[in-house]
Design brief:
By secondary structure, the protein is of the alpha/beta class. It contains 10 helices and 17 strands. Bound molecules: pyridoxal-5'-phosphate.
């Protein structure tokens, strides 16, 4: 279930921190349910996508190609061709962010074959992804801005790749894309990365005035007030770095593309209890009907999420209403890593409801149908309290 009021609140906070002319794009990988992308679109968010599937979700959400940026660590020929086709049809994506010199060559060959940049057809607008080589303050599995990570190009690779592009060819290099990591616990690595991005931008721009864009990615964390930096803190750092540059070296276009910050807190998984057992060491184990198929983050990188019991009407069980004790909450999947960890919960029985909070990001979009499970339904909680079906439960089909 996704709270639309919560989406609106965080979208407003992001806009206050990064007002126009910053482009604010929602990183669709965090939640690809079209109804949710559509609500964010109505709140002024563009869409940052990594595949044709996410691009389709953005289009289904009513976001035009001009509001879609395409990035991704490994784009297939089909994906590159689709971006070229859209540009040749006069409906280009806002830009394509390229990961490597080889990918840039492949894209340039496809764009040349489609006649982009010739005969009055505009070239394809491209950002080049810089590996910022920083030490992100986050879980190792989320620290994509490390120098050893597979993401982006070194400064040397990037500058050589752009220098090899003809000035009036089928590709127009417009600037730099970078991303430091997700759920950043501090602003330092992000500031270092933005500083590097600005320096490389300025270096390349000296020979190419159109190289004027800096997209600083996502990474803004979620957490209780005071425990993590808010977008405004990151914005302060960016403003200070950009403000220190001479005016003619400042990027003309700036973008952020958060995912988690926009959707995580708005989402809740509501599960029901299947059974409760005591283990030999006295541990209470509660098995619920949601598992790693709906929320893989705990199994994938040890993420924890707040959990609480709900009444049959869906209201939180009041902490004082029943004596609570520690319980381990496990999913129904045939894997021992299918666990959500421990929570203080009241006595529970089959059919009781348990809510797993802060599950709006990297849950539905990372879901699987392992163990033959249908996709979970998606529900929107409107600001007036009504519920709207955003996606119905997946179907199980029997052949005989
Ligand atoms: C390039 C890029 N941009 C944006 C994001 C969104 O990150 P977050 O959800 O932490 O804001 C990611 C996440 O992996 C990413 O790889």
């Amino acid at each position: 279930m996704t709270s639309i009021a919560a989406l609106a609140a965080v979208a407003g906070e992001l806009e206050a921190a990064f007002p126009d002319p910053w482009l604010r794009a929602f990183s669709v990988k965090a939640n690809d349910v079209p109804a949710i992308v559509a609500r964010l679109g109505r709140l002024g968010l563009a869409a940052n996508v990594v595949s044709r599937g996410e691009w389709a979700a953005a289009r289904a959400a009513g976001i035009p190609n001009a509001g879609v940026t395409l990035e991704g660590i490994g784009k297939s020929d089909g994906e590159l061709r689709a971006a070229v086709r859209a540009a040749a049809a006069g409906d280009p994506l806002r830009w394509v962010a390229v990961e490597s010199p080889e990918e840039l060559d492949a894209l340039a060959a496809l764009a040349a074959r489609a006649g982009l940049g010739a005969g009055g057809r505009p070239p394809l607008e491209v950002l080049v992804r810089l590996n910022p080589d920083v030490q992100p303050e986050t879980h190792r599995g989320l620290a994509v801005g490390r120098g050893t990570a597979k993401f982006g190009m070194t400064e040397t690779e990037l500058t050589a790749a752009v220098a090899a592009l003809p000035a009036d060819g089928p590709i127009r290099a417009r600037g730099i894309h970078l991303h430091v990591g997700s759920q950043l616990g501090a602003v330092d690595a992000w500031r270092d990365a933005v500083r590097r991005g600005l320096a490389v931008l300025s270096l390349v721009r000296a020979g190419r005035p159109a190289f004027d864009t800096l997209d600083v990615g996502g990474g803004f964390p979620v957490g209780d007030a005071g425990t993590v930096p808010r977008p405004a803190r990151f914005a302060e750092e960016a403003a200070a770095l950009i403000g220190a540059l001479p005016e003619d070296r400042r990027p003309a276009r700036l973008a952020v593309e958060p995912g988690r910050f926009l959707v995580a807190a708005a989402g809740t998984i509501v599960a029901s209890v299947l059974h409760v057992r005591e283990r030999g060491d006295g541990e209470r184990v509660v098995v619920i009907d949601a598992g790693m198929t709906e929320l893989i983050r705990p199994a994938l990188y040890g993420a924890t999420h707040p959990m609480r019991a709900l009444t049959s009407l869906g209201a939180p069980v009041h902490p004082g209403a029943a004596p609570s004790s520690a319980a381990r909450v496990d999913g129904p999947i045939c894997e021992s890593t299918d666990t959500f960890g421990s929570a203080e919960l009241p006595p529970l029985h089959r059919g009781d409801l348990v809510a797993i909070a802060e599950t709006g990001a990297y849950a539905a979009s990372m879901a699987s149908t392992y163990n033959g499970r249908p996709a979970a339904p998606q529900v929107l909680l409107e600001p007036n309290g009504t519920l709207t079906a955003a996606r119905s439960r997946g179907r199980v089909r029997f052949a005989g």
